[in-house]
Amino acid sequence: MIYYLFILTIFFLVQRYTESFQIVWDNTVDFDSIADEEFSRSGQVRMPNWFFIFPGTKWCGAGNIAENENDFGEFRDTDKCCRNHDFCPDIIEGHQSKHNLTNPSFFTRLNCDCDEEFHRCLKSVNSHVSTQIGHIYFTALGTQCYRNNYPIVSCKKYSYLPNETSSYSNTTNS
């Protein structure tokens, strides 16, 4: 429970104060150097990864603290899910643009295929830790993914809400 409160506190602080600078995760940083940094000059602040890694894992959190790609923590199966998620090939870093989309958030946004696979993996591990990781990532942090399936060419079916498409075609052959 304390870890949830810690994560939520960090989340709200980050959301409130990261509009003017970007956080860079760096395992070589110590707390003294964080306090000495001038945010306004560099536009970046370096934070240690280990501070935001879920206990008992090396890949679940901001970045990783693994020595190599086969280095896992105590919760190996959950850690493997997080490692695979970290290697998603299609991402939009915080405050960056790609695919004609801009990510205004501090958090990296991933292609929905990667987030869906991460969700399946955590559910298949079916442990207390994998459930906690899933709850933090998908619920508490409120992360968002994106899907590159535009442009919408025509609406195939409307929902009950006015002017909302519930089924669409993104090809000209519908």
UniProtKB/TrEMBL annotation:
Pfam families membership: Phospholip_A2_2 (PF05826)
Main location: secreted
The enzyme's E.C. designation: 3.1.1.4
Signal peptide stretch: 1-20
Coiled coil stretches, renumbered: none
Superkingdom of source: Eukaryota
Annotated GO biological process: arachidonate secretion; lipid catabolic process; phospholipid metabolic process
Keyword tags: Calcium, Disulfide bond, Hydrolase, Lipid degradation, Lipid metabolism, Metal-binding, Secreted, Signal
SUPFAM superfamilies linked to this entry: Phospholipase A2, PLA2
A GO CC annotation given for this chain: extracellular region
Requisite cofactors: Ca(2+)
InterPro entries for this protein: PLA2-like_dom (IPR016090), PLA2_histidine (IPR033113), PLipase_A2_dom_sf (IPR036444)
Domain named Phospholipase A2-like central: residues: 53-148
Protein localization: Secreted
Residues spanning the membrane: none
Keyword Signal tagged: yes
An example molecular function term from Gene Ontology annotations: metal ion binding
Protein name: Phospholipase A2
